[in-house]
What we know:
- This protein is 47% helix and 11% strand.
- It is α+β, with helices and mostly antiparallel strands.
- The radius of gyration is 28 Å and the shape is elongated.
- The model is unreliable at 1-9, 153-164 and 265-304 (pLDDT under 50).
- One of its GO terms (molecular function) is ATP binding.
- Its EC number is 2.7.11.1.
- This is non-specific serine/threonine protein kinase.
Amino acid sequence: MDKHSANEYHKEHFDQYKEIEPLNQKENSPILVRHLQSNEFFVRKKYDPSLSKRLIQLKKVNHPNLPKIKEIVLQNNHLWIFEEYIHGKNLTDILKAVPALKTEEILEIGISVAEALTALHEEKLIHRDVKPGNIMITTDGVVKLIDFDALRFYDDSKNTDTVNLGTIGFASPEQFGFAQSDERSDIYSLGVVLNVCSARRYPKNGITTDPILATIITKATKLDPDDRYENMLEMTNALLQVKKASFPAVQSAQQQQDFYVRTLPIKEEAVIQQEKNSWTPLSPEMIQAAQEQPQQAASSVQQNWLRRYVPGFRTDLLANKIFACLIYALYAYLIFYENSIVTFKDWLLRALQNAFILLPLSILFTNFMNIQKKLPLIKSEDKKNRRLGFLLYIVIWLIALTCLIALFDSLHTQAFLDFFNK
Length: 422
């Protein structure tokens, strides 16, 4: 086929699709297109021709957590792919829309992405750009790993990557010239994503305090690749085991869909215009749920507040909640019970004194309301500063307690003091 015939072939091929709109405002933005015969929607993306072998290999991978590639077109040193259109929101937008993700939701995302990466790694393909912006949640609650600009083959004969690609903060150290990236590079990036979902910060600024996720994230984000999980399958199994132990009930499809609905913006969003009339829109129930989000959000925020700040409720483990409730009941008894009551004033002063004896250090050491991240010295990443901070606040508490007891003694009635000093 000569050059002219090839151009005619590709023009005819492109004419099978109708362009709808760019998906963003960037140059060379992916284009939403509709196949004229099937009326199916696809995304047309332009890639560097050097990726052709990798994308051809990727097209062979059929996995529910990866977008399906319909076809690849290579013409005159230009490369396009047509892949399935994923209607949903990326994880970056979801993290902005909700105050906190549930641990179970984070595990679901982590497991889905890990399984997608396992499928890639089986073909010797490394994603190298795993980040929230490249993770989509569909309207059905299905997690999809997208964007293959940084895709490469793993070649164990090379010591370093030829080109350093990835997103700073999420990319592993070896992606910046320290060594060749391999599947453990994707393990590192996924660990960072999990920490950002849980703690809203990079691991270098502090691993999440969620005990269900902390161990996995710590191992996945080790600076030395040899200290991480050996492969993505091992990390996937670790996530599955933690989920099974902490959340034995299987998540239903409706629960997955509810996760998407609770992240929908309240305002109406015309994602697909009249040109896209063959797409099945959100159901009336889902639209109504999104419009009623303020009422739903109130309950969600309350639950998230408990999970984020209150010791004993930071996980969904029933045993932890029961134990925490018993401790809180004991504290209430120790603070408010007083058998030497003479007057209400005496009882109130005594309760305040008991509260000041019991609560400050308990709040500090259990990190209630995430207070350790707000106090000078203790919020430092330096261990010496943190130890100095704890010691300093204990001394301040002892001094304040001594002064407070003296003050309260001066305010008590004489009858109470006589009774108490018997």
